[in-house]
Amino acid sequence: MAKIQQTFVCQSCGAVYNRWRGRCEACNGWNTIVEETPGGTGPQSGPAATRPGRARGRVFPLEGLTGEAKQAPRIPSGIAELDRVTGGGFVRGSVILLGGDPGIGKSTLLMQASAAMAGTGERVAYISGEEAVGQVRLRAERLGLSAQPVELAAETNVEDIVETLSQGRPPALAIIDSIQTMWTETVESAPGTVTQVRSSAQSLIRFAKTSGTAVILVGHVTKDGQIAGPRVVEHMVDAVASFEGDQGHHFRILRAVKNRFGPTDEIGVFEMTDGGLAEVPNPSALFLAGRDHAAPGTAVFAGMEGTRPLLVEIQALVAPSALGMPRRAVVGWDPNRLSMVLAVLEAHGGIRLGTHDVYLNVAGGLRISEPAADLAVAAALVSSLSGAVLPSENVYFGEIGLSGAIRPVAQATARLKEAQKLGFGRALTPQGRGEAGTQALPTEALRHIADLVSGIAAN
Ligand code: TYD
Ligand code: MG
Fold first, then answer.
1. How much is the ipTM here?
2. Which of 300, 320, 353, 459 is deepest in the core (most CB within 10 A)?
3. Which long-range contacts (CB under 8 A, 24 or more apart) does 50-58 make?
């Protein structure tokens, strides 16, 4: 009799071993390897492969594929900030993985999207594996959405879910909340294991592709920011979005991490209110609210998130250190980037911070990844050290090179327009390609970090 071969699967990255070990060699995680019974993970064991009369390996001409897709390529969700991230609405038959910390508002966002779409006459199903139907209904009631014809189910078995969804006209949108709670009969492992998550996702993806239903899988995120288990799912789905935010702040950011059908650098901004998530069409105003105009150490950065300009306040605090090894603490920006700006300020700007503690904060809890913030960070640092308050009408953007040169950054015009819209009067920028006079705002072009330092000293 053939012996069933046990496999050992890393629950963090999905690497497979033939014996147990304490540490995964692929992702270096400790105690992540769990014994699982294989089987059923391949597509050959799924229902689609056994369907009779299906042509194998058929080819189609490229141009002929548009027929169906042309009519309704996308279904708008009815929430503009969500549609911005998906690239204009859900693509029929596509699968999106939505990750985020517990309690950040994933279920709330998806309930609101479901209700908005159901209100337009589309069939929408919301499958919860975590909450009972009554709980989901209560939430909808609190959000004032209980009158919308969303189909609710509390179900965790994938075969049952696919069966239910296949009855009648296929839904335009199906929400699976969450993928970690789903299980399929084709594998024996416990729900939440990588094998189950992968197989369940595979079945649901197959359902999406055959029925044309847009499916959203909710995925939980671990402490270190990875989508737990479903990391293996990330490669299988069409789009991955993450819902982020600071528990201490009210705003939430929906960010596209991967998108086969749209841009990946767009963000949607929401604010968590008593009545659910409210869209924030003008996030700059939100992030600049409560700004202290008279304090040294603050500079406004004219940033971009995707195609959208976003103005935020950068705060720096520089103080003499009592420690042999001064502290460097950063919230919302890359600590390596801060070290670089500090080194360049010292080498080329004559600013010595080697014996100072340095704290840097992006106000509002936002996380910035653009090197274009270098100039604003440098300005905030110099201002804090010298005690000179930067003019409150100034905005800053520009990348700083290791030579101290201020380098041009993309989309200068959009940044300047946004700054002008919000009432700023002057921009400190790299030497631009834009012609003087055509700019939305008076600009002062800086060539070198020393120009910035001498400008602040002259204030
Ligand atoms: P939820 O959508 O359940 O989070 P997730 O599905 O990501 O785990 O959101 C839960 C949080 O949202 C909870 O802390 C309460 C808050 N919330 C509001 O502030 N207002 C609301 O109207 C709702 C429904 C939730
Ligand atoms: Mg939830």
1. 0.95
2. 300
3. none
